[in-house]
Amino acid sequence: MTLVEKHITNTFAKLLLILVIIAFASCRKLETYPPEPVITFESGSFQEGLDTLGNEVLLYIPTIHFTDGDGNIGSLYNGKVIRPCDVSNTHDYYMNLYEKIDGQFVKRDFEENYQCEESSTGRNDSLTADNIGLDVFLTYLEGRGQANSLVGEIENKVVVRGLKSDTIKYDFQLCDRDNNYSNVVESPVYIIDDSN
Q1: Per-residue H/E/C for 70-139
Q2: What is the pTM for the complete model shown?
Q3: pLDDT tens string 57-67
Q4: Is residue 114 within 8 Å of 151, Cβ to Cβ?
Q5: Contact present, 175 and 37 (Cβ < 8 Å)
Q6: Of 16, 114, 124, 151, which residue is least crowded by CB atoms under 10 Å?
Q7: Is 146 helix (H, G, I), strand (E, B) or coil?
Q8: Rounded to 5 degrees, what angle do the CA atoms 53, 60, 94 make?
Q9: 167 and 90, same structural domain?
Q10: Which structural domain range is residue 135 located in?
């Protein structure tokens, strides 16, 4: 092998090595998630606000992070609920209130005294909630891209009134269109100031 051939071979080998290193460095591992939604409690806060009649009220604002591997969250499409006929669940997003009474947390029937004012999301997707107590239908979403997954946050505002206790907590669960339920997550325990 001549000196020129060795130089060309070495240059080609170095170039090939650089291309291989760049190719490996630029490859990102594809994030995969299970087909069941997975949720985490991100935050919760209280603020003064107005109810639908313009009355001053205390609002609770939870933020729930979610992932869904098969990307089928929400069933509210153009104002109509789209659900397979064999699905027995009644909503997409479930939220329960618990009040501490005699040292025990008791689940509250919130339909009478609580209402979901509005819902929106942040990070990756946009969701809205239908006003049906604390359990709501979310906007129809489909995953995009190679993985077909959805990742995002659900944030809603809930009017807090008619409490029987100053110590409360909430729990949350998400259900996709295939009737896959997420894990259940809880908020921290909150002590509500009587001045609110």
Answers
A1: CCCCCCEECCEECCCCCCCCCCCEEEEEEEEECCEEEEECCCCCCCEEEEECCCCCCCCECCCCCCECEE
A2: 0.71
A3: 899 999 999 99
A4: no
A5: yes
A6: 16
A7: coil
A8: 100
A9: yes
A10: 38-191
